[in-house]
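Hi R.,

Here's the chain you asked about this morning:
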Amino acid sequence: MKDRVRLLPDHVANQIAAGEVVQRPASVVKELLENAIDAGAENITLIVKDSGKTLIQVIDDGSGMSVTDARMAFERHATSKINSAEDLFNLHTKGFRGEALASIAAVAQVELKTSRETDDIGTQIIIEGSEVKSQEPAVHPVGTSIAVKNLFYNIPARRNFLKSNQVEQRHIIDEFERVALAHPKVSFKFIHNKNELFRLPKSKKRQRIVAIMGKKIEENLVPIKEETDLIKVEGFVTKPSFAKRTRGEQFFFVNDRFIKNSYLHHAVSQAFDGLLKPKTHPSYFIYFTIDAKHIDINIHPTKTEIKFDDEYSIYSILRSAVKHSLGQFNVAPVLDFNKDKTMDTSYSSNKNSAKIPRVEVDRNFNPFKDSFSANAIDTKKSVKKDEDVWQNMYSGLEEDIENTTVDVEFESDLSSGNLFENTETEKTSLQLFRKYIVCSLSSGLVLINQHRAHERILYEQFLTQITQEPGSSQQLMFPLCLELGNDEIRLLESLKSSLELTGFMFDFSKEKQGEVLINGIPGMLTESQIYEVIDELISDFKAGIPDSGFDRNNRLSSIMAKNMAIPTGKTLELEEQQDIINALFSCKEPAFTPDNQPIFVQLNAKHIDKLFLT
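And here is the predicted structure, written out as tokens:
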């Protein structure tokens, strides 16, 4: 019987290892940018084509590599960051495992050009599927340029699992923003399909946050700073009024490395307790500086999770720092313990009885005394004269009434009942708990959720407007100005044609970057709802815009309907209740909301009888 266990070929082992490191184009972007940072680069350019499927190129002005280092960098577990196992617990760099370039080269076509300051000429290496095709001298400025072409070209099944270009581009932007926020002293440039998306000069943390997230966030940033023997905490949180419905703008950085930590996120949430509107989340950009021996970053393949030695203490420090800043900058309400000294009472007066205040009134004072006496006689004469005139008008009227006979026929109860003999009784409704509408039917009662019912009505109206006939637009007398981030502007540009069919009319300011001017809104939308609806649209579509036109219109209609529907807790007049009932049962799918939630419940006689059974 033949042996069954055997070693895998190197190229297969490399492809399997690549699956842990290279999950999508954004994974390549992250690894290459971090390598450039570790090389001491001060200027980094990221060039992407077709959302990374065709090309990902990173050009830096770092230290560069020698001929031998350039070749060794593509070997598995080859690294310059560690020499022994103990070094894993004292890391100050990003990449350290020596797997990134080897994994990338296993599933793509890679071209590397590099040169050091001491070299007369640089080096060029071309690798395809872990196989070195060529290595030769090349002219190149100090630094490194690495181009990754045709990702997953040799694994078609893996390439087919990539999402749409919009989704992959969103992930690339997320990774770029994380690296750029962690290193404000490095200049970055991001070019996608020959369009410059970001140009970030060297700056401080606050300026870098504003450059990436948009100018509107600048006035809402609250600085935090706390330094202890264990850890140093600094950064910014946003004001409670700037809280958003999604958790997109929440960043933790430990020693300039982006991490995710639900425990620390809870600490920030606790500091905002009682300050946020329901279902909203604060934005924060928090930087931790801690001795590397107190953390372990080797617990996750993507190195986005870190284990702290004393996580409880860091939790307490973070919560206190955020809470202190919110109070210090008058964002959170605080108690004023500074009392006014004039309100103090002397101890010597503690035995004195309280004096009852006295109010003196001149009861003989009458400001109308002089004028009243003069006009009293004339008024009495006028009243008497008017009474005589009215009595003369009715003289002789009683005799005419007695001599007049009027024949009146009264309708009997029987004839009155036959009037509605063949028609239904008029439908009535009532509102219950300011949340439900109760109406009667011949078979029993119907309990309708008013918010969900209105959501279904608006959803079908918006979907009809987008696909068949444009909806009416309410023009604003004064355009409303919104300041958004770069990626939010690009998202609105892609949705502009669909939004205009629903009644939105807006333009992008050419004078001020990141500014949107809204000139018209849907007829059923109020000005106070505009920002909330736009914010919800942006948050929902940030994950990616569907390629299918129907899916895009469906999601757009659903989001707008959900935000514009009558809220729970609003009192409805009888006419409003009847309008919702009639419009709901005129819909194509009146039983469920767009996200498949039940809208109404029917209660027949049997259901009601069961409530009274003992």
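One quick note: Residues 408-425 have pLDDT under 50 and may be disordered.

Cheers,
M.
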